[in-house]
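Subgroup meeting minutes
Present: P.N., E.W., G.H.
Scribe: E.W.

1. P.N. recapped why we're keeping a running log of single-chain structure predictions: easier to compare across weeks, and new members can see raw inputs and outputs side by side.
2. G.H. added today's entry (127 aa).
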Amino acid sequence: LKNLPLTLNGKIDRQALPAPNFKGYSTEIELPITATEKTLSQIWAKLLKYGAIARTDNFFDLGGHSLLATQLIARIRDNFKIELPLRQIFESPTLDRLATYLDTCMWINSATADLQSLNSEEEEFEL
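Output recorded in log:
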Protein backbone atom coordinates (compact mmCIF):
# COMPACT_ATOMS: atom_id res chain seq x y z
CA LEU A 1 0.00 0.00 0.00
CA LYS A 2 1.19 3.49 -0.71
CA ASN A 3 -0.81 4.91 2.19
CA LEU A 4 -2.37 3.18 5.17
CA PRO A 5 -6.11 3.74 5.63
CA LEU A 6 -6.79 5.98 8.59
CA THR A 7 -9.78 6.52 10.85
CA LEU A 8 -11.19 9.97 11.59
CA ASN A 9 -8.93 10.07 14.67
CA GLY A 10 -5.82 9.58 12.52
CA LYS A 11 -5.19 6.01 13.66
CA ILE A 12 -4.71 3.07 11.30
CA ASP A 13 -8.06 1.65 10.21
CA ARG A 14 -7.32 -2.06 10.57
CA GLN A 15 -10.70 -3.09 9.17
CA ALA A 16 -9.99 -1.23 5.93
CA LEU A 17 -6.66 -3.02 5.38
CA PRO A 18 -6.63 -5.60 2.57
CA ALA A 19 -6.12 -9.28 3.37
CA PRO A 20 -2.42 -10.28 3.44
CA ASN A 21 -0.96 -11.89 0.34
CA PHE A 22 0.97 -15.04 1.25
CA LYS A 23 1.94 -16.06 -2.28
CA GLY A 24 5.55 -17.15 -2.45
CA TYR A 25 5.76 -17.98 1.25
CA SER A 26 6.30 -21.54 2.35
CA THR A 27 4.15 -22.90 5.16
CA GLU A 28 6.75 -25.54 5.98
CA ILE A 29 9.33 -24.77 8.62
CA GLU A 30 12.84 -26.13 8.80
CA LEU A 31 12.99 -27.85 12.17
CA PRO A 32 16.16 -27.90 14.30
CA ILE A 33 18.64 -30.61 13.33
CA THR A 34 21.53 -30.72 15.80
CA ALA A 35 21.27 -31.42 19.51
CA THR A 36 22.30 -27.83 20.24
CA GLU A 37 19.58 -26.47 17.94
CA LYS A 38 16.96 -28.72 19.54
CA THR A 39 17.90 -27.68 23.08
CA LEU A 40 18.06 -24.03 22.08
CA SER A 41 14.65 -24.22 20.38
CA GLN A 42 13.13 -25.64 23.57
CA ILE A 43 14.62 -22.77 25.55
CA TRP A 44 13.27 -20.23 23.04
CA ALA A 45 9.82 -21.84 23.02
CA LYS A 46 9.56 -21.58 26.82
CA LEU A 47 10.89 -18.03 26.98
CA LEU A 48 8.85 -16.69 24.08
CA LYS A 49 5.77 -18.83 24.80
CA TYR A 50 5.91 -19.90 21.18
CA GLY A 51 5.18 -23.23 19.47
CA ALA A 52 7.55 -24.77 16.96
CA ILE A 53 10.75 -22.82 16.38
CA ALA A 54 12.34 -23.02 12.93
CA ARG A 55 16.11 -23.02 12.38
CA THR A 56 15.96 -19.64 10.65
CA ASP A 57 13.60 -17.96 13.13
CA ASN A 58 14.84 -14.70 14.58
CA PHE A 59 14.64 -14.33 18.37
CA PHE A 60 13.52 -10.71 18.12
CA ASP A 61 10.99 -11.32 15.33
CA LEU A 62 9.27 -13.88 17.58
CA GLY A 63 8.80 -11.31 20.33
CA GLY A 64 12.17 -11.39 22.05
CA HIS A 65 13.61 -8.23 23.57
CA SER A 66 16.61 -7.28 25.69
CA LEU A 67 15.10 -8.49 28.98
CA LEU A 68 14.24 -11.87 27.48
CA ALA A 69 17.71 -11.96 25.93
CA THR A 70 19.25 -11.73 29.41
CA GLN A 71 17.03 -14.61 30.53
CA LEU A 72 18.13 -16.53 27.43
CA ILE A 73 21.78 -16.00 28.39
CA ALA A 74 21.10 -17.36 31.89
CA ARG A 75 19.40 -20.46 30.48
CA ILE A 76 22.23 -21.00 28.00
CA ARG A 77 24.68 -20.77 30.92
CA ASP A 78 22.65 -23.39 32.84
CA ASN A 79 22.22 -25.78 29.89
CA PHE A 80 25.46 -25.41 27.97
CA LYS A 81 27.87 -24.11 30.66
CA ILE A 82 28.82 -21.20 28.39
CA GLU A 83 28.96 -17.56 29.44
CA LEU A 84 27.71 -15.39 26.57
CA PRO A 85 27.86 -11.62 26.29
CA LEU A 86 24.47 -9.99 25.66
CA ARG A 87 25.65 -8.60 22.32
CA GLN A 88 26.01 -12.16 20.97
CA ILE A 89 22.22 -12.57 20.95
CA PHE A 90 21.99 -9.43 18.81
CA GLU A 91 24.82 -10.57 16.52
CA SER A 92 23.44 -14.11 16.12
CA PRO A 93 19.68 -13.63 16.44
CA THR A 94 18.60 -16.71 14.46
CA LEU A 95 18.42 -20.16 16.01
CA ASP A 96 20.87 -21.76 13.58
CA ARG A 97 23.47 -18.98 13.90
CA LEU A 98 23.33 -18.95 17.70
CA ALA A 99 23.55 -22.76 17.81
CA THR A 100 26.61 -22.67 15.53
CA TYR A 101 28.22 -20.09 17.83
CA LEU A 102 27.47 -22.27 20.89
CA ASP A 103 28.89 -25.35 19.17
CA THR A 104 32.06 -23.40 18.39
CA CYS A 105 32.35 -22.26 22.02
CA MET A 106 31.89 -25.82 23.28
CA TRP A 107 34.54 -27.09 20.86
CA ILE A 108 37.00 -24.37 21.92
CA ASN A 109 36.32 -25.09 25.61
CA SER A 110 36.97 -28.81 25.15
CA ALA A 111 40.14 -28.16 23.13
CA THR A 112 41.39 -25.69 25.74
CA ALA A 113 40.70 -28.16 28.55
CA ASP A 114 42.73 -30.80 26.69
CA LEU A 115 45.63 -28.38 26.26
CA GLN A 116 45.57 -27.39 29.92
CA SER A 117 45.71 -31.01 31.04
CA LEU A 118 48.68 -31.63 28.74
CA ASN A 119 50.53 -28.62 30.14
CA SER A 120 50.00 -29.75 33.74
CA GLU A 121 51.33 -33.25 32.92
CA GLU A 122 54.38 -31.74 31.23
CA GLU A 123 55.13 -29.70 34.34
CA GLU A 124 54.96 -32.82 36.50
CA PHE A 125 57.56 -34.53 34.32
CA GLU A 126 59.90 -31.56 34.42
CA LEU A 127 60.01 -31.48 38.21
